[in-house]
Amino acid sequence: MKFLAILFAALLGTVSVQAQEFPGKDPENILVMQTDQGTVYIEMLPDVAPKHIAQIKELTRAGYYDQSPFHRVIDGFMAQGGDKTGTGFGKSQLPNLEAEFSDIPFERGVVGMARANDPNSANSQFFIMLARNSGLDGQYTVWGRVLEGMDVVDQIKKAPFTERSGIVKDPDFLVRMQVLSDANGGNS
């Protein structure tokens, strides 16, 4: 039922992305992620993961992430989205990406690419760190960091402690995602 309310609001245009200014930051490398909990601004890191950023921008501009669930959310770990099926197995029709590992640590607010066991299997799914996890360092591609809105990320519905996989029943949604330069109508 929550999904239908979000979809209806989005279709009526009552869910809007508000343009934000971040001095010294390139609006072409900032994502505006409107969730049903509020807005999150993510700085993309094209110097760190250029292929991942190119694919995320392509998917964002195609509307791929709109009305997609945060299907896996583990308290004290991360919130994962980017899978339209909500199963953890969904991906876009674009090709998988080769890993672009870096020395950036997986700290609170860092955004990384989810993948299967193969390091070169990232496609559309991503996760936002709720807390530091050194076990992910150098094992997953970092492509961004939250500039503003971690309080919103903290509010995303989490799986119950007893659900070891972290799969959320009746999840919160990523209502709409845009590149900030597009949300500003092309103005920087």
Layout of helices and strands, plus pairs?
Elements: H1 2-12, E1 30-35, E2 38-44, H2 50-61, E3 68-69, E4 72-74, E5 78-81, E6 110-113, E7 126-129, E8 142-148, H3 150-155, E9 173-179, H4 180-183
Antiparallel strand pairs: 1-2, 1-9, 2-8, 3-9, 4-5, 5-7, 6-7, 6-8
Structure description:
The chain has helices spanning 2-12, 50-61, 150-155, 180-183, and strands at residues 30-35, 38-44, 68-69, 72-74, 78-81, 110-113, 126-129, 142-148, 173-179. It is an alpha+beta fold and 188 residues long. The chain has a single domain (2-7, 31-183), classed as Cyclophilin-like (Cyclophilin). The protein has a 9-stranded antiparallel β-sheet with strand order 3-9-1-2-8-6-7-5-4, sandwiched between helices. A hairpin with a 3-residue loop joins β4 and β5. It starts with a helix and ends in a 5-residue tail after the last helix.
Which descriptors would you attach to this protein?
single chain, Cyclophilin, 188 residues, alpha+beta, 9 strands, nine-stranded antiparallel sheet
Give the domain tally.
1
Q: What value does the average pLDDT take?
A: 90
Strand ordering within the main sheet = 3-9-1-2-8-6-7-5-4
Give me the number of helical elements: 4
Distance between the termini: 37 Å
Largest sheet entry: 9 strands, antiparallel
CATH architecture annotation name:
Beta Barrel
The stretches of 5 or more residues where confidence is low (pLDDT under 50) are: 3-18
Order of helices and strands: HEEHEEEEEEHEH
